[in-house]
Amino acid sequence: MRISFSQLLLSLFFFGVSSAHDGYAQELLNKRISLKVENQSIKKVLNEIEKSAEIRFIYSSNLIKSERKISLNLDNSTLGEALENLLTPLQLGYKVLGKQIVLNRVEPKAGLILKDVPDVTVVSPLDIPIKGTVTSESGEQLPGVSIVIKGTQRGTTTDQNGAFKIDVQDGKAVLIFSFIGYVRQEVVVGNQTAVNVSLKADDLSLNEVVVVGYGEQKKSDLTGAVSSIQPKDIVRANPVLASKALQGQVAGATVTKSDNRPGSTYNITIRGENTINNSTAPLVVIDGLMGGDINNLNPNDIQSMDVLKDASSTAIYGARGANGVIIITTKKGISGKPRVSYDAYVGIKTPAHVPRLRTSEEFYKLTYTDRILEGVTGNTFTAAELDNIKNGRTTDWVALVTKPGIQTSQNISVSGGTEKTTYRFSGGFLNEDGNVVSTNYKRYNLNAGLDSKLGDHFKVGFTSYVTYSNQNLGSQESLRGAFRARPTGVPYYADIANPSENQDVNVNGLAVWMGINDKQVPNPLLDTDPKQSKLQTTVANIMGNAYVEYSPIKGLSIRSALSATYGSTRLGDFRGTWSKSQIGAKPRAQVDNRTLGSYTLDNIITYNMDLGKHKLNFTGLQSAFYQRNETYTIAAKDLPFDSDWYALNTGTVTTYASSLVERSLSSFMGRINYSFNDKYLLTVTGRSDGASQLAPGNKWAFFPSVAVAWKLIDEPLIQNIKAISNLKLRLSYGQVGNSTVNPYSTQAGLLNTGYDFDGTAAYGFAPANLGNKDLRWERSKEINVGVDFGLFNNRVSGTVEVYDRKTEDLILSQKIPTASGFSQVTSNIGKIQNKGIEILLNTVNIASNNFSWNSTFTFTKNNNKLLELYGDGQTVDKGNKLFVGLPIKANFDYQFNGIWQTADKDLAATYKQVPGSVRVTDVNNDGQISSTEGIDDRVYLGTQLPNFLIGMTNRFKYKNFDFSFFTYYRNGTQYKNNTLAGTFGDIGTRYNSLASLDYWRSDNPSNTYFGAVAANPYRVAIQYQDASFLRISDITLGFTVPKGLMSKWKLNTARVYAQVINPVIKSKFTGFDPEFNSSIYQDDLPSMTLSLGVNLSF
């Protein structure tokens, strides 16, 4: 309530009358309120307190300077305490008059003054005027920061630019800087007249807000298992895709890249693999849009990623929460003048691991001399090859098809606004070259968001995101061909002395057959030419979210949000006349077009009730989701032109297909959060989902959960233990579903087929599969126990989670009698268990004025086990490598037992082997190696799932320098080394091979790798290897330029840095990359990137 100065005097006159009501005044001041505001005007804060306490303030706007910005955090405080916290630093006082509180200025003591009120007459000026600026670690100006002179009640706050002014008596004065979400900092003035402070984010603060789905909660109030990643950790390693940021930073998440090609995606699983045939990918929610693609986001636009891991947390998403949920919140505008941020880097990518192949001399010895030695016919060589061998000339084909690449990123954003309306706009560009010639990935991003308050009851806003990307993968054959090509050949036609000797062909100066007689592997350089081979994926994606929120009364909000996405993907594949697949034939091409659109309509009602010791929050939801997926494919051969995939009608069309898949989901959800005395917490959730892809009677399912927590730190017994600064126990149980049931799988399908009709070819349709109307959700039930702790004033803090999840009603193919006309039907059978432990540990190792060292440690241990299979007592499915009692993704094969040696020649002959052949274990000792049931010698060798994962980040800061490095360790994964597969690993054939292989010879009785011998049927046994690895993923050294040096350029912050990605990896795995089961058929080489970057803000 704003009044004139005369009205204010009149109100003060009646204060004498009010003295009879002191008892009532005290009762009024004992009212409890909770309020959290940041960078709001005093007037706005007073209005909020009026609503909460049902009082009225009387004041003069000029007297109290009501437009000044402040920040305030009240948690169940009395009104009296709230007024003291609010008014004292502002040199204001108050008087209670009935239900009115009159604000007045308090005369400062002699020698004191509050300099941020320019109208006030100076009583007795202090000796030293101090000014400065307060920023975050990233250089962002912080308005509303509280600055108080230690030992006094005098202080001020920073303005919209983060600037402040204050006077102190002498250099011994200590300024205390505090702000919500940041670590409090004390600075001795000394002989300084300018004090610039960078506040550190309080990552360990229990007041940190976590997004939990359809709402937010303070970290201290969580009852489920939730992990969060902040912006600095998302962009720390400059990831091309945001999904990379999860690797090693979220306990319980297994993140593995799909391949090494530019723009390649990452596979994410949360708490193990819960299904066999369906997707194990978690649900991604982007600003409320369910099913969004994390790979379409620019990491620089992400504010936070919150990972919901246990069933009690994910039950709020019901049938879509079985694999965990990743909630992504993009950055929003902040009130104040426009802020411009610019982030850029440029780096050079070089192959990090290139296996050495054999030289010409080594290749000749292996494929000719050694083969003759072992009684095997040697390879033949042309005169040109023999000349190269004689003169020591070797062609390094891998070097010819690979190159250093450039990786660069440019991002700019503008944000700002008023108290009522905030905005943020950003744009970004990224280019990542591959190390194979003609491969690269480019992405363009645009992001816009606006939020506005309409009066006192309405809020509206929107967020939109546009992405366009182009991925060129060149040819899938060039790298493979380079590893297989004989080093004795030559790349260029002009280098062949007598081309007619091998009937070579000249294509744009390249020798197709490289001067050799072998016509199996053409010159790999041909496939690096885009006119011969091109594989291109183009993606255009639009995501949008708009909402309106109505708050009719205190504590109640009603929100409607509409989210939509539309994406178009085109995959083009062109093979020219002289590509590996055509070799002289006319070109062929194929194009696949896919459009995917969806919308989600959420209507959410939220009610908060605070009854002192009892706090209640209710969230209700009605949601509708619809998705439409269209695909079109056309392929043609004998194309007359090299026109990529744009003139397919000029050739012979070999394939034309199209499809339409629609699905929808209708949902209702309710959640109650209850707190007693802010110590005992309860969360109850129930969600009901109805899915279109299931048959009547099974469309709807209900998914409940319950979770409790106990803040032991609030118990007197624990509070007496000084070493413990935080302790909370959590227990939860919930049920969730897996909604990735394929649409129409409950129905019988048709396929087109040909048949003979009275001697004439005819075409028709026949049943393709047997429908199952009883098909239902896969359902997971999980119990989770968690402990949150803090020690030594949170110098050491963390979380320990122990869980046990069982997934039943797995969707598998069940064998049925062939009399039905079918051999199998899709059914709900089988059960999987995932149980494990997760540890998150944060430590402040050193904290001083000039130097700090912080560490973050994550540990993930998950045990996967198949509990039931097919439901008919069957415990083994060797064909699909499924075994009850063992993990899925099993390796089931013959067990390597060394190499047959000359001394064992006779024994080897009983197994139809010779010295130099791979020896495998005869498990049943029956004198034969067999895969026949009953005498099968194949055994369980291991699993492709990891035993445990460790991630560790260390951050150092010394004055203006910062240094960090991230280490990642994976243990226990067993992969089949594809670099030893097929012709690539075949010693002594016409193809080149790894120089590092210690292959067997009569004069070198190696027991590790087979020799150049004919009989070798069990060579696959040698491929299984331990793929555990330790990798230093990124190292960063940065320097923040001092403010004084940047002021003339009008920059708020400037930071430059140097970074190296993947500099070190240690592993026993001898393949390309131990992180995933790589193949030379479709891959790039693993790379190391050295980059320089800059972060600027204006």
Automatic annotation (TrEMBL):
Keywords from the named record: Cell outer membrane, Membrane, Signal, Transmembrane, Transmembrane beta strand, Transport
Subcellular location: Cell outer membrane
Name under which the protein is recorded: SusC/RagA family TonB-linked outer membrane protein
Signal peptide: 1-20
Gene3D superfamilies the record matches: Carboxypeptidase-like, regulatory domain, TonB-dependent receptor, beta-barrel domain, TonB-dependent receptor, plug domain
UniProt GO cellular component terms: cell outer membrane
Keyword set includes DNA-binding: no
A Pfam family per the record: Plug
Residue span, Secretin/TonB short N-terminal domain: 56-103
Top-rank taxon: Bacteria
Lineage: Bacteria, Pseudomonadati, Bacteroidota, Cytophagia, Cytophagales
NCBIfam families associated with the record: OMP_RagA_SusC, SusC_RagA_signa
Classification via InterPro entries: Beta-barrel_TonB_sf, CarboxyPept-like_regulatory, Plug_dom, Plug_dom_sf, Secretin/TonB_short_N, TonB-dep_OMP_SusC/RagA, TonB-dep_OMP_SusC/RagA_CS, TonB-dep_rcpt-like
Statement: the UniProt record of this protein carries the keyword Cell division: no
Coiled-coil region(s): none
Family: Belongs to the TonB-dependent receptor family.
Topology of this chain in the membrane: Multi-pass membrane protein
Domain TonB-dependent receptor plug, first and last residues per copy: 219-325
Major localisation: membrane
